[in-house]
């Protein structure tokens, strides 16, 4: 069973008007993977995330999660099965304290079924569970950060809050849409071990990223999109050496010099 993909995208196409956002995209995600998805602006990365998570319907093709096709299912049904995502443009309830942002997912059917966070099967007070999750993910409880209004938090915490909302569902897969974007160097540096920790806890990750240096440290495999089509897939080292990637995606070989 461990050799079976947890997620299998098969020949997915998506067109917006005349724009081919995705063309015959196929890939497998194995349990425990950190799969990086990279590509230039407009190459189809976010559309792929939207198709997998039900926010956009594929024109054709299949998205098999644990063998069952998700195409046509609503986003909340997909999240209920343990396949969750963060958003590039974050959407917290800005006027609420950070921990209150977790109450909605903690009241979801999945959280109820799975017992929320580490409650060992029984859900404790949801407020307590929410603060526990935030602490787990780097909100310092002793500094009262979980209790601060979301609008007052810097980007680094808001990115973590996005992840925390996923974690409240006890996900099996999290798709992170540009978790490093907008972060300071130190925020990025602290995000890397956090992603490693999620992987060690058994969560399978897809990371859509522009920040190659941090991504290549984390990902065991990388897929490259260009104009909606997959042009390469392999280890970070293989992708970095791929001539088509260097030329078609980056336009020159220099981009990898800083990785
Ligand atoms: N809802 C939409 N309506 C029309 N065109 C769209 C829509 N969503 C995406 N597109 C187009 O599809 C193509 C792929 O866009 P997408 O946002 O998936 O790329 P991306 O790789 O995520 O880009 P970025 O790195 O800039 O976030 C682009 O040409 C974009 O303009």
UniProtKB/TrEMBL annotation:
Q: Which InterPro entries match?
A: AAA+_ATPase (IPR003593), ABC_AA/LPS_Transport (IPR051120), ABC_transporter-like_ATP-bd (IPR003439), BCA_ABC_TP_C (IPR032823), P-loop_NTPase (IPR027417)
- Its Gene Ontology molecular function terms? ATP binding; ATP hydrolysis activity
Task: Give all residue intervals belonging to the ABC transporter domain.
Answer: 7-252
Alphabetized SMART domains for the sequence: AAA
- SUPFAM superfamilies in the cross-refs: P-loop containing nucleoside triphosphate hydrolases (SSF52540)
- Keywords from the UniProt entry: ATP-binding, Nucleotide-binding, Transport
| PROSITE patterns the UniProt entry points to | ABC_TRANSPORTER_2
Cellular component (GO) terms are: plasma membrane
- Lineage, top-rank taxon, reads Bacteria
- The name under which this protein is listed is ABC transporter ATP-binding protein
């Amino acid at each position: 069973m461990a050799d079976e993909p947890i997620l299998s995208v098969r020949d997915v196409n998506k067109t917006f008007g005349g724009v081919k956002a995705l063309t015959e995209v196929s890939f497998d995600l194995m349990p425990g993977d950190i799969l990086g998805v990279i590509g230039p602006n407009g190459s189809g990365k976010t559309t792929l995330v939207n198709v997998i998570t039900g926010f956009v319907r594929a024109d054709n093709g299949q998205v098999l999660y644990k063998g069952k096709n998700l195409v046509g299912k609503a986003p909340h049904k997909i999240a209920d099965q343990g396949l969750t995502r963060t958003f590039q443009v974050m959407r917290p309830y800005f006027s609420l304290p950070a921990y209150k942002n977790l109450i909605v997912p903690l009241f979801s059917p999945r959280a109820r079924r799975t017992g929320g966070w580490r409650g060992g099967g029984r859900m404790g007070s949801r407020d307590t569970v929410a603060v526990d999750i935030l602490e787990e993910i780097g909100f310092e409880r002793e500094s009262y950060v979980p209790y601060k209004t979301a609008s007052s938090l810097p980007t680094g915490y808001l990115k973590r809050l996005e992840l925390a909302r996923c974690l409240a569902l006890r996900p099996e897969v999290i798709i992170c849409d540009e978790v490093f974007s907008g972060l300071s160097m130190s925020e990025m540096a602290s995000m890397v071990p956090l992603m490693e920790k999620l992987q060690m806890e058994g969560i399978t990750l897809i990371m859509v990223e522009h920040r190659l240096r941090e991504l290549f440290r984390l990902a065991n495999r990388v897929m490259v999109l260009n104009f909606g089509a997959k042009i390469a897939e392999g280890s970070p080292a293989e992708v970095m050496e791929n001539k088509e990637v260097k030329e078609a995606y980056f336009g020159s070989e220099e981009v990898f010099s800083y990785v």
